[in-house]
Write the structure tokens for this entry.
Amino acid sequence: MVQYVSTFSIGGTLGLTQEYIDNGCTETEPELTDCIKDYVELEYAKFKEQCYDVAKGLLDDSHELNDWLDETIFIQINSNINSWLQTCGQVYVKYQDIYSNAFVQSYTQSDFYLYCLPEILAFI
């Protein structure tokens, strides 16, 4: 279980990377941030479900293992997600007239690009 959980990272699994904070967040409008949150919630829910499935495969009665996941691992992951989203929101600079090349490159390489593309098109 620990080996499976250790494959998770908010950058690699959910696309919440330092590179995007550095090059994308300054131009990420609150509406786009909301879309990123929606994407993260969906992907994180899939990961959690996979963890529960792995736990069930390891133990017939996986309640204790699920409790451990809920009370330790998922709390830490939630904290990391919230910290990333807060940092991204804090560096946002309001009233950009046009997206920079750095933003476009970071956004188009992000995991949430296609999911949130309609939000970007609304601003163009």
Remarks:
- The helical segments are 2-5, 18-23, 30-58, 63-91, 101-108, 113-123.
- The mean pLDDT is 89.
